[in-house]
Amino acid sequence: MITRDSKKSSSIYISNGCLNNCSFCKLTFQEYPLKSVELNEVKEAIDSLDEENCSELLLKGTNICQYGLDIYKKYMLPEIITYLEQKENIKRVILVGFSFKDAIKNDFQNVIANSTKVVELCGSLESGSDRLLELIRKGFTSQEIIEFVQGIRKINDKDLFLNIISGFPTETIEDVKRTLEVLKQLEAYEVSICRYINSEYVDSSCYEQLSPEKIQEHTRIYSKVLQKRNVNTRIVGHGYIYN
Ligand code: SF4
Question: CA 5 to CA 120: how far, in whole Å?
Fold first, then answer.
């Protein structure tokens, strides 16, 4: 449950699995059902890291925003964030596996905005195109995620680490442009460009697939535009791309 990443930085894995059903997601069938760690165990882990003088804590899970739904039938991440506010030595909290859908639909905006400890959100946009977001079943629109992030930043700035999918089935150059426009508005600190990899087990395999050359082209565009904007970028997924 706890990994010590360095002398001052540690991770707590608070949950595994996800109840969402994104059409491309291989994790859904691999890690379903959701399994959360008991809240008192999470609090004990936080207490012990705080006592050890840990200054940076990463809260991790497949989808940490659904933490607690399986055990307590409610969204409990806000309770952990509030608990962390009282800790003396933990200064920076990074939320990894942050699902914007669950956070938007369950009003996490205030608790995150008002947290002095949460400094980074690491989650997935996938696409800025509402057409593709619907095909992905991502559960939010581009406007909803923009309003959510901007609402938080009005109170407290947070860094955003986002994943996008390059070459999702049927993605057009217009979709790529719209995603780049949404990323500009979100002011992401780092963007991981994940090249779409099909699988017969996922629903998105039914959509019209892009050729490897098209996926390569879209990846290049994402990469070049984001680098020009001085956004940190990483390209992940199989090697269709060579520069
Ligand atoms: S929210 Fe993430 S883990 Fe959950 S189904 Fe979607 S892509 Fe998979």
Answer: 17
Could you tell me if the CB of 63 is within 6 A of ligand 1? yes
Other CB atoms within 10 Å distance of the CB of residue 232: 12
- Nearest atom in ligand 1 to the alpha carbon of residue 18 is 4
Question: Which domains, from first to last, does the chain contain?
Answer: 9-236 (3.80.30.20)
Q: Is the CB of 194 under 6 A from ligand 1?
A: no
Each of the 243 residues of the chain gets a pLDDT tens digit; together they read: 899 988 899 999 999 999 998 999 887 666 568 999 999 999 999 999 999 999 999 999 999 999 999 999 999 999 999 999 999 999 999 999 999 999 999 999 999 999 999 999 999 999 999 999 999 999 999 999 999 999 999 999 999 999 999 999 999 999 999 999 999 999 999 999 999 999 888 899 999 999 999 999 999 999 999 999 999 999 987 543 333
User: Which of 99, 137, 199, 203 is the pocket-test mutation for ligand 1 (most atoms within 8 Å of CB)?
Assistant: 99
The answer, yes or no, to whether any atom of ligand 1 lies below 6 A from the CB of 39, is no
pTM value > 0.70: yes
**CB of 93 closer than 6 angstroms to any ligand 1 atom:** no
